[in-house]
Amino acid sequence: HINLAYAYGGLDQLKYEIKNLIGYSVDRYVKIDMDGFVKVINYIGGVEFDVPQNMYYTDESQNLHINIKAGLQTLNGEQALKLCRYRSYPGADITRIEVRSDFLKAAAEQVLSSKFVSKAAELAGTMFDNVTTDMSLDDMVWFAKKAVTVKASDISFYTMPGGPANDSGMWIPYHDALLEM
Fold first, then answer.
1. What gap in Å lies between CA 92 and CA 114, rounded to an integer?
2. Are 94 and 101 contacting, i.e. CB atoms less than 8 angstroms apart?
3. If 0-12 CB within 10 Å is exposed, 13-18 middle and 19+ buried, where does residue 178 land?
4. pLDDT at residue 124, rounded to an integer
5. First to last CA, the chain
6. Would you call 133 helix, strand, or coil by DSSP?
7. Which residues make Cβ contacts (< 8 Å) with residue 114, sequence separation at least 6?
8. 15-20: long-range contacts at Cβ-Cβ below 8 A with a sequence spacing of 24 or more?
9. pTM of this prediction?
């Protein structure tokens, strides 16, 4: 439902589905599209990341061509987006989720480095120009200033507990485990 909610009902439907899943309403949202993601990653100078495997994929219907070598490198915005879109892992979507989380943590570590502490307001402005949100620029600046006090080691990512529904490939949440989380 979550994957389809936004496509069929926009943010209102997505908020409704999230509330039904986790039990409370979303207070604020920030939506970044693919172009915005590329611009923000480029703004921070790319992200140093250890690509876990060679990534090669092409899909003419999406005009998607991925060719990224394994190893430690600085990914620009376009490469980072391709890394996040890549799907051909031995562990399928579970590995894809892990790689995305690792990449986002690396990006957060870079943004939270001393290099960006003095640029919190400027970074918030760049984000504001490249996202759709219900937050004001003042709110984003406030959050950016607070974010630079966070340690990257305090950032955690979690995968919703769940599994495939009746061998359909559709992921369903395990509600009891989700509530425990």
1. 36
2. no
3. middle
4. 73
5. 20
6. strand
7. none
8. none
9. 0.80
Residue 105 tokens read as 């943590």
- Residue 122 three-state SS: helix
The tokens for 159 are 């995968």
- Tell me the sheet residues that pair with 172: 163
pLDDT at position 143: 83
Give helix then strand counts, H and E, for the chain: 8, 8
The pLDDT value recorded for residue 114 is 63
Residue 108 CB-density burial (10 A; 0-12 exposed, 13-18 middle, 19+ buried): middle
Indicate the SS3 state at residue 75: strand
**Mean per-residue pLDDT pooled into runs of 10, the chain (181 residues):** 82 90 87 89 93 95 94 97 92 86 90 71 77 87 80 82 73 82 83
The predicted structure's pLDDT at residue 60: 92
